[in-house]
C-alpha cells in the first residue's frame, strides 16, 4: 500500500479521498489556493501546501507547482480527484516521469477517450454500440449540415473536446442548424480551445445510464453495475441513482458487458465510467442503449455505487495504484437496495439558478444521510470554483423508500444566507413522476413549474412562524389559541412579516421546522426553503381582524397588566387596548379595526380565564 498521497483537488472530493487514505494509514497532503486556506480539506490533511491564488489556472491547474509540492513533501502518489487535471494525460505523464504514482487512468487510456470523436471510433472498432451520427472528419459547415440532414432531426451538435455539459446544441430543424453550429463552435473554442464538433442523432425519451468499471494492473476488469443520471438540468446531473429503474437482468448484463469491453479496448486501469444514452420510449432495451463517452476518472456520483455494492471506490483506486489486484471478482459483487444522490448547489432557483456565494452562517443536514461536503457551517462559498456545497446520499431497501429519504434529506437541509437548490431537490424527489420512475433527461425542464420555488411561503410555514412568535398558551400552543370563543369558528389570525412581506395568517397546522436566530432576526427552515422573518412586538398580534365582531377576549388564562383605553375612546386598527400577562410573557391586545370602545370589562390586575370578554369595540358608524 502507498505510504503518502498528495491530493491535487479541493472541496468535497479532496475530503472524501483524505477520509479513505487516513483509514488505510496513508499520510495525506493537501494543495490549495490562498482563498481555500481555511477549508476543511486543508485542515484535515496531514500537511498542506499553498500553490497559488484563487483562479484555478493559478493554482489547481498549475502542474509545475503541484509536482513541486509533491516532491517537497515527499509524497509517493498523486490523486487528481475529478475535474481539474484528472483527465489531463500530460499531467499524468509528468507525474509518472517524476517517479510518482498516478492514482488515475493510464495516460494512453485518457488520450484514447479524451476526444469524443476518437473515443467513438475506438468503440466502434471494439464492437460497442455507439450513438448513431457523424464523427466529423470533414468539418465544413456544408458537410456537417448535409450529415445532420441525413441523420434526421432532432440532432445534437457536440464539441469533440466537450465536458461538463458544455459545448452542446440540440437542433430541431434543418434551417436552424447553421446558427447552432456557429454558436456551438464559439463555445467550444473558448471553453476547450478546440472548435471541432461531431453530430449525433438526438435520442428521444433519453435516459442517461452509465456503468462503473474498474481495471487493475493484472489484466482484470470488472463492472460495479449501473447508475441512472437522467435527472439533469442543462445536461448537468442533479440527482443520480443506482441501480437504474426498470433495468432487467438481461439488459443489465448486456450493457455492463459492453462497458467492460469498452474498458478493455483501451487497456483501462483504475476507476472509470462508461456513459450510455438510452432510448427509453419502450423501457430499457439492450438494442436501444448506445455508448456516449467515457469518463476516465472517479465520478462525482460514485457514492451511489458504493452504497449499493458496499465497496469503497477510493480504496479500490488506492489498492489498484499500489499494484494490488481488484479487491473483488465480478461474481463477488452484487446490488443491495437502492441509493440516490442529490447535488446541493449554492444557486438561486428564483433567479434562474445563478450561483449564490457568501458565508454559510448555517449549514445543517438531517441525520441518517451520508453527506459528502467540502464546507462546514461557518465556512464560505466563494465565486471561484464549482458551486456544489454537498452531496446528499441515501440508501434504502427499495426505490420508493430511497426517494422518500432523499426528499426528507433535502427538505431537512438548512442553509443560510447562501441560496440553494435544497427545496428544488426536495420537490423533485417527491414529485409523483419521479417516485413512479417516469424519468428521462427532460424531466426537470418538463416539470419546472412544479419544481420551481413558491414565491410566497405556504400557510403552514406562516403558521410555524406565528407559532414561534406567540407565547405558548398550554401544552400544545395551538389548542390554546384556536377556538377561543365558544361555538365560534376559530378565527385567530396574526400578521407576520416573512421574507419582507406582511401576511395575514389564518392559523393552520404547522409544518416541521427549525428556527434559528440569524442575521439579527429569525430564519425559519422548512422543506429546504429558508424564510427570514421578523418577530413583531407582541402588540402587533391582531386577533379577529377584519372578520372580528369586535369582542376582544383573553386568548389564554392570564392577568391584566394594564388597560390603555376608556369607554367611548376612538381607536384605530392595531392600537393597543390592554396588556395581558400569561405564561410569564406580556401580550398586547390591539384593536382589530377602527372604531370606538363600546365596553370595558377588563380590570387592572385582575386574573382572567381563557375566552373571557375584555373589551368590546364597535365600528365607526
Ligand atoms: P460527472 O459526470 O461526474 O458529473 P462532469 O463531466 O459533469 O462529470 O464533471 C465532473 C466535474 O468536473 C465537475 O465538477 C465539473 O465542474 C468538472 N469539469 C468537467 N469538465 C470540466 C472542464 N472542461 N473544465 C473544468 N472542469 C470540468
Ligand atoms: P459531457 O462530456 O458534457 O458530459 P455527454 O456526451 O456525456 O457530454 O452528454 C451530456 C448529456 O447530454 C447526457 O447525459 C445526455 O443527457 C445528453 N445527451 C448527450 N448525447 C445525447 C444524445 N445523442 N441524445 C440525447 N441526449 C444526449
Ligand atoms: Mg458526460
From TrEMBL:
Q: Where is the Biotin carboxylation domain?
A: 1-449
Q: Where is the ATP-grasp domain?
A: 120-322
The cofactor(s) it depends on are: biotin
Q: Which InterPro entries match?
A: ATP-grasp, ATP_grasp_subdomain_1, BC-like_N, Biotin_BS, Biotin_carboxylase_complex, Biotin_carboxylation_dom, Biotin_COase_C, Biotin_lipoyl
Arranged from A to Z, the UniProt key words for this protein are: ATP-binding, Biotin, Ligase, Nucleotide-binding
Q: Matching Pfam families, A to Z?
A: Biotin_carb_C, Biotin_carb_N, Biotin_lipoyl, CPSase_L_D2
Please report the stretch or stretches of sequence annotated as the Lipoyl-binding domain. Answer: 540-618
Out of the domains of life, which is the source? Bacteria
Spell out the protein name for this chain: Acetyl/propionyl/methylcrotonyl-CoA carboxylase subunit alpha
Its source organism is: Sphingomonas oligophenolica
Amino acid at each position: 500500500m502507498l505510504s503518502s498521497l498528495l491530493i491535487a483537488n479541493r472541496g468535497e472530493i479532496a475530503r472524501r479521498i483524505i477520509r479513505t487514505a487516513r483509514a488505510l494509514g496513508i499520510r495525506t497532503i493537501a494543495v490549495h489556493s490562498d482563498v481555500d486556506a481555511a477549508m476543511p480539506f486543508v485542515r484535515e490533511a496531514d500537511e498542506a501546501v499553498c500553490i497559488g491564488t484563487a483562479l484555478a489556472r493559478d493554482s489547481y491547474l498549475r502542474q509545475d507547482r503541484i509536482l513541486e509540492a509533491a516532491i517537497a513533501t515527499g509524497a509517493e502518489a498523486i490523486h487528481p480527484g475529478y475535474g481539474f487535471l484528472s483527465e489531463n494525460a500530460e499531467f499524468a505523464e509528468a507525474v509518472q516521469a517524476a517517479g510518482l504514482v498516478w492514482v488515475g487512468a493510464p495516460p494512453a487510456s485518457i488520450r484514447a477517450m479524451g476526444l469524443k470523436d476518437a473515443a467513438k471510433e475506438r468503440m466502434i472498432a471494439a464492437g460497442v454500440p455507439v450513438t448513431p451520427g457523424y464523427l466529423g472528419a470533414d468539418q465544413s459547415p456544408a458537410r456537417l449540415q448535409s450529415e445532420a440532414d441525413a441523420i434526421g432531426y432532432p440532432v445534437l451538435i457536440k464539441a469533440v473536446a466537450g465536458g461538463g455539459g458544455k459545448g452542446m446544441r440540440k437542433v430541431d430543424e434543418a434551417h436552424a442548424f447553421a446558427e447552432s453550429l456557429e454558436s456551438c463552435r464559439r463555445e467550444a473554442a473558448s471553453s476547450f480551445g478546440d472548435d471541432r464538433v461531431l453530430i449525433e442523432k438526438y435520442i428521444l425519451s433519453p435516459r442517461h445510464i452509465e456503468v462503473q468499471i474498474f481495471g487493475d494492473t493484472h489484466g482484470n476488469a470488472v463492472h460495479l453495475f449501473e447508475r441512472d443520471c437522467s435527472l439533469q438540468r442543462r445536461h448537468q446531473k442533479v440527482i443520480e441513482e443506482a441501480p437504474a429503474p426498470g433495468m432487467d437482468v438481461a439488459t443489465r448484463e448486456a450493457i455492463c458487458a459492453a462497458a467492460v469491453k469498452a474498458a478493455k479496448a483501451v487497456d483501462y486501469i483504475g476507476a472509470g465510467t462508461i456513459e450510455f444514452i438510452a432510448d427509453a420510449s419502450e423501457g430499457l432495451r439492450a438494442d436501444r442503449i448506445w455508448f456516449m463517452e467515457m469518463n476516465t476518472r472517479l465520478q462525482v456520483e460514485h457514492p451511489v455505487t458504493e452504497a449499493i455494492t458496499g465497496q469503497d471506490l477510493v480504496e479500490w483506486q488506492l489498492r489498484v495504484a499500489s499494484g494490488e489486484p481488484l479487491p473483488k471478482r465480478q461474481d463477488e459483487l452484487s446490488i443491495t437496495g437502492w441509493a440516490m444522490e442529490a447535488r446541493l448547489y449554492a444557486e438561486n432557483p428564483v433567479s434562474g439558478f445563478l450561483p449564490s456565494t457568501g458565508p454559510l452562517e448555517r449549514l445543517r443536514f438531517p441525520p441518517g444521510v451520508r453527506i459528502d461536503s467540502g464546507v462546514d457551517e461557518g465556512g464560505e462559498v466563494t465565486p471561484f470554483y464549482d458551486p456544489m456545497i454537498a452531496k446528499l446520499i441515501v440508501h434504502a431497501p427499495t426505490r420508493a423508500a430511497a426517494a422518500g429519504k432523499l426528499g426528507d434529506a433535502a427538505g431537512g437541509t438548512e442553509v443560510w444566507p447562501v441560496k440553494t437548490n435544497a427545496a428544488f431537490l426536495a420537490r423533485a424527489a417527491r414529485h409523483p413522476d419521479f417516485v413512479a420512475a417516469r424519468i428521462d433527461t427532460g424531466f426537470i425542464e418538463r416539470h419546472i413549474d412544479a419544481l420551481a420555488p413558491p414565491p410566497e411561503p405556504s400557510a403552514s410555514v406562516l403558521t410555524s412562524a406565528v407559532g414561534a412568535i406567540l407565547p405558548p398558551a398550554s401544552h400544545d400552543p395551538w389548542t390554546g389559541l384556536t377556538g377561543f370563543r365558544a361555538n365560534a369558528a376559530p378565527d385567530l389570525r396574526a400578521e407576520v412579516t416573512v421574507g419582507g412581506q406582511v401576511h395575514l395568517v389564518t392559523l393552520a397546522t404547522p409544518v416541521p421546522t427549525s428556527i434559528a436566530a440569524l442575521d439579527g432576526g429569525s430564519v425559519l427552515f422548512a422543506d429546504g426553503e429558508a424564510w427570514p422573518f421578523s418577530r413583531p412586538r407582541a402588540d402587533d398580534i391582531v386577533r379577529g381582524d377584519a372578520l372580528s365582531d369586535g369582542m376582544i377576549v383573553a386568548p389564554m388564562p392570564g392577568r391584566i397588566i394594564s388597560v390603555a383605553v376608556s369607554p367611548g375612546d376612538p381607536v384605530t386598527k392595531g392600537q393597543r387596548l390592554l396588556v395581558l400577562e400569561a405564561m410569564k410573557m406580556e401580550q398586547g391586545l390591539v384593536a382589530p379595526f377602527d372604531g370606538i370602545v363600546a365596553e370595558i370589562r377588563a380590570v387592572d390586575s385582575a386574573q382572567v380565564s381563557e375566552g373571557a370578554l375584555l373589551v368590546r369595540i364597535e365600528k365607526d358608524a
